[in-house]
User: Fold Elongation factor 4 from Amycolatopsis rhizosphaerae.
Amino acid sequence: MTTFADTTFTPPELIRNFCIIAHIDHGKSTLADRMLQLTGVVEERAMRAQYLDRMDIERERGITIKAQNVRLPWQVDGQDHVLHLIDTPGHVDFTYEVSRALEACEGAILLVDAAQGIEAQTLANLYLALDKDLHIIPVLNKIDLPAADPDKYAAELANIIGCDPGDVLRVSAKTGQGVKELLDEAVRQIPPPQGDPDAPARAMIFDSVYDTYRGVVTYIRVVDGKITPRERIRMMSTGATHELLEVGIISPEPKPCAGLGVGEVGYLITGVKDVRQSRVGDTVTRERHGAKVPLTGYREPKPMVFSGLYPLDGSDYPELREALEKLQLNDAALTFEPETSVALGFGFRCGFLGLLHLEITRDRLEREFGLDLISTAPNVVYRVVLEDGSEHVVTNPSDWPGGFKISEVHEPLSKVTVIAPAEFIGAIMELCQSKRGQLLGMDYLSEDRVELRYHLPLAEIIFDFFDSLKSRTRGYASLDYEEAGTQVADLVKVDILLQGEPVDAFSAIVHKDAAYGYGNKMASRLRELIPRQQFEVPIQAAIGARIIARETIRAMRKDVLAKCYGGDISRKRKLLEKQKEGKKRMKTVGRVEVPQEAFVAALSTSEPGDKGGKGKK
Ligand SMILES: Nc1nc2c(ncn2[C@@H]2O[C@H](COP(=O)(O)OP(=O)(O)OP(=O)(O)O)[C@@H](O)[C@H]2O)c(=O)[nH]1
Assistant:
């Protein structure tokens, strides 16, 4: 079979661009691996599990964070074709990246686990793909599993897509069964790319990654014209121009080529050092005789969830800054700015696309940069309108305009989809109601499985919603959420005071009805964690000047020398030295000395979850 590795400008009618969309763990990476093997792109002995997931952390968590793409040769009816498989991230936090990757395709393989059926992200991704008018090939995976029920789930899929259950392909990505036939069908069913080869060049960036040696590697799909090396290109959203150092294809390692034509997918290297100069969704054109109109839909990545990150050891602050700067080279959506906290010292206020993005970032900081971190409870972005008409954007409880008359607070809202066995409907509804949810609709996917749609404040989801959902449904529910505008809500800022002094790291913006609960919980937790002082310490929770909860740490006289009867002066000195050492790690709030560990412990139990363990949604 001819390999197309070095050929350029493949005629569009021989190209098929497609992606695999699936709920997490339904086998997307395994199927991609099988395709690499079957098309001969990766030799058997070089094959390693999940070839396309490059980052270690991806492989460990088993999730795909960054899209990768690969060119596969495939022959159907004696005709050589070029398939571009575009790997999409599956998680809600990266919906924008998913939608860009879909834009680079004409078809999508909708992969569903034959033992589980459709899940929340199957639907979310399917709707995105239909929105882009992609041809959908429905496929059931894992048919080798004893628990597989392909007939039931073929009917479910056919029902959602509106096709015949007989059209749903059945494969096992693990054994390879049915994968050849799937590749054949991809060539037969997916339409070839359309585009004008003589028009000014336009290519869409659907991914860009930072490589330590080569700078930013930008993945593009050419829509019109062609992109050739050694010309200057322009990024249409910013107008910035760059020298093209290399153009190439991935098969499965990068290979330089003489250019990319209509419908082709490949990469560019320009020597820029920061992915924010080469952003997903942007259009690339030539500097001279370039296109005038960009391809549609570029959007700035917008952080939705904020959290303070502090080094446990204050002297690590410069390392934390450096690490964040390095991560930002590869993550256009990550934002950070310095902040200080009475309780935690110097740190950074960081913005993330969502909770998983936060967890991954913290994981990488700890693992790749060896930092020990404490993160404050995450919060969303609020828009506060004062009675004088002025508006404030609040990404940090400490920015809350206290002391002013507030007329309205707007909070971000999400549209949430939950799919679960029907027996859990009651439990799910109860949970959503307790989180200020509004039922939008409910549908049965099959006799015993339902889809529930809710409007929920994003702030309620980013706390412990997913964990509560899982425990109430014994792990059977799946969840997906998307932005759905904002709503006016009755929100207040609750401060926690030690001896009348607010402890900034514990302030939170919560719904009025939840304020007492939050105040009581934090006050009693701190009472247990803070050691007794030589005087009485009141712990209070307050909304503005109004105290809503109070606990007291009773006074205790701590005399370190009490144990030291006898007159051994050197022993006395040693004990006093030790006390001084201990004091260094104390933070002083007002007159109260609190060991940093107490703050850390109080915060970590209010975090969304233990670190590292719950990436999957
Ligand atoms: N028995 C069986 N197991 C499979 C099959 N395909 C995938 N798996 C297993 O299912 C699990 C998830 O597969 P992945 O390929 O990592 O799933 P994914 O959809 O890529 O997951 P993300 O990258 O996290 O979105 C792995 O343990 C695979 O070994 C199959 O056909 N049969």
Remarks:
- The first strand starts at residue 15 and ends at 22.
- The radius of gyration is 28 Å.
